[in-house]
From TrEMBL:
SUPFAM superfamilies: NagB/RpiA/CoA transferase-like. GO terms for molecular function: S-methyl-5-thioribose-1-phosphate isomerase activity. Keywords: Amino-acid biosynthesis, Isomerase, Methionine biosynthesis. Catalyzes the interconversion of methylthioribose-1-phosphate (MTR-1-P) into methylthioribulose-1-phosphate (MTRu-1-P). It is an enzyme of class 5 (isomerase). The keyword Ubl conjugation does not apply. This is Methylthioribose-1-phosphate isomerase. Residues 329-349 are annotated as: Disordered. It comes from Actinomadura logoneensis. The keyword Transport does not apply. The gene is mtnA. Pathway: Amino-acid biosynthesis; L-methionine biosynthesis via salvage pathway; L-methionine from S-methyl-5-thio-alpha-D-ribose 1-phosphate: step 1/6. Its EC number is 5.3.1.23. It holds the Pfam family IF-2B.
C-alpha cells in the first residue's frame, strides 16, 4: 500500500528519508547508502518515531549488506555494522525488532533481506490504517456523534511510521468521518515534534488545531477543553506500561484527574513482551545542548546542567485503551498485552 506521506522508502540503491529536522520549513530527502550515515540520521532524528525506526532498521540491514559488498567487508565487520544500526537509539523496541526481522536472511543476500524489509514496510502502513479504524470506532462508541476535541503529544503521524500514522492515524480516520472539532498539539520540547511535525501533518489533513506549550496540556484537559488524548508509543511493556515522548505521563495524569480517556495507539511491533514492566524500559538520555541552547545559542547560564530524558513511562493503570492493528485492549481495566498475546496464540492454534 503506497502511503501518501512516505518518510522512508527504498530507491533501488539507497534508503530515501524525509529529513524531519528540516520540516516544516523545507521538505527535503536524504538518500542513505552508508551505515555511518544511517546511524547519524537515526541519532539526529532525521528519521524518527518507533515504527519508522523499525522499518529503517530493516532496510538498514540492506544498506549494510550493499556496503559490505562494495567495501569487501568480512562477516565480523558486517555484523558489527548491523549491530550499530540496531543500537542507535535504545528506547523504541521497533528499531531492534526491525533489524531482527530480517537478520535471519542475511546469508541469503541483500535481495532476500530487501524483500522482507519491504514486506515489513507494507505491513506497517496497513497496520496503521487498521489502528485508525479501531481507534475511531472505540472513541465514537463512547462519545456519541459529536465532533471531538483531541489532544496529542509529540508526533505519532505518518512521519513517525512507514505511512498513515498511529495516533494521528486515528485522528485522520475520525476526520474522514467528520468527527474532529479540533486538536490541541503539544509543541513537545525540546525538539518540537508537535509544533513542527504534527502541525505540518494536520495542515496536510485540513484538521483544525492549536499548538500549545507542553505545560499547558494539564490546564487544557482539566479546563474541560479536551474529550480524549491520543498518543503514540516507543515501547509497550508486557504489563501495559508504556514509554513515550517525555511529557506523556503528565498528559495521562491530567486525563485521569479529568476523567477523560487516555489512548495509546501502537502496532504490535511496539509491544515488547520480553520487557515485563515500564521500570525495565531503557530511557534514552539526550544531549544537554538540546535543553541548554536554542538553535546553537545558549539559553542557560554556562554552568547549567541538563536533565534530558527523551521519554517517560506511563503506568498501565493510566492507559484507558491501547489501540493496536488487531483491536483495542484496556490496560487500565487490567487487560495486559501479555494476556492478549497469549490468547492470540491460543486462537492461532
Ligand atoms: C508512532 S511512534 C512515535 C513516537 O516516537 C517519538 O519519539 P522520537 O520523536 O524521539 O522518535 C515519540 O515518542 C512518539 O510518540
Amino acid at each position: 500500500m503506497t502511503p501518501d506521506i512516505a518518510p522512508i522508502a527504498w530507491t533501488g540503491d539507497s534508503l530515501r528519508l524525509i529529513d524531519q529536522t528540516l520540516l516544516p520549513a523545507r521538505l527535503e530527502y536524504r538518500d542513505v547508502a552508508d551505515v555511518d550515515d544511517l546511524v547519524d540520521a537515526i541519532k539526529r532524528l532525521v528519521v524518527r518515531g518507533a515504527p519508522a525506526l523499525g522499518v529503517a532498521g530493516a532496510l538498514g540491514v540492506v544498506v549494510a549488506l550493499r556496503q559490505a559488498d562494495r567495501e569487501s567487508w568480512d562477516a565480523t565487520t558486517r555484523d558489527a555494522a548491523i549491530a550499530r544500526i540496531r543500537e542507535a537509539r535504545p528506547t523504541a523496541v521497533n528499531l531492534a525488532a526491525g533489524v531482527d526481522r530480517v537478520r535471519p536472511l542475511v546469508d541469503e543476500g541483500a535481495d532476500a533481506v530487501l524483500a522482507e524489509a519491504l514486506a515489513f514496510l507494507d505491513e506497517d502502513v496497513r497496520g496503521n490504517r487498521a489502528i485508525g479504524r479501531h481507534g475511531a470506532a472505540w472513541l465514537t462508541a463512547r462519545t456519541g456523534d459529536r465532533p471531538l476535541r483531541l489532544l496529542t503529544h509529540c508526533n505519532a503521524g505518518a512521519l513517525a511510521t512507514a505511512g498513515w500514522g498511529t495516533a494521528l492515524g486515528v485522528v485522520r480516520e475520525l476526520h474522514a468521518r467528520d468527527r474532529v472539532e479540533t486538536v490541541y498539539a503539544d509543541e513537545t520540547r525540546p525538539l518540537l515534534q508537535g509544533s513542527r511535525l504534527t502541525a505540518w501533518e494536520l495542515e496536510q489533513m485540513g484538521v483544525p488545531y492549536y499548538v500549545q506549550p507542553d505545560g499547558a496540556a494539564a490546564g487544557t484537559i482539566l479546563g474541560g477543553h479536551v474529550d480524549a488524548a491520543i498518543v503514540g508509543a516507543d515501547r509497550v511493556a508486557a504489563n501495559g506500561d508504556t514509554a513515550n515522548k517525555v511529557g506523556t505521563l503528565a498528559v495521562a495524569l491530567a486525563c485521569a484527574a479529568a476523567g477523560i480517556p487516555f489512548l495509546v495507539a501502537a502496532p504490535w511491533s511496539t509491544v515488547d513482551l520480553a520487557t515485563p514492566d515500564g521500570a525495565r524500559i531503557p530511557i534514552e538520555q539526550r544531549a544537554p545542548a538540546e535543553i541548554l541552547a536554542n538553535g546553537g545559542t545558549p539559553v542557560a547560564p554556562p554552568g547549567a546542567r541538563a536533565h534530558n530524558p527523551a521519554f517517560d513511562v506511563t503506568p498501565a493503570r493510566l492507559v484507558t485503551a491501547l489501540i493496536t492493528e488487531t483491536g483495542v485492549l484496556e490496560p487500565a481495566r487490567g487487560r495486559t498485552p501479555a494476556e492478549e498475546a497469549a490468547e492470540k496464540r491460543e486462537r492461532g492454534r
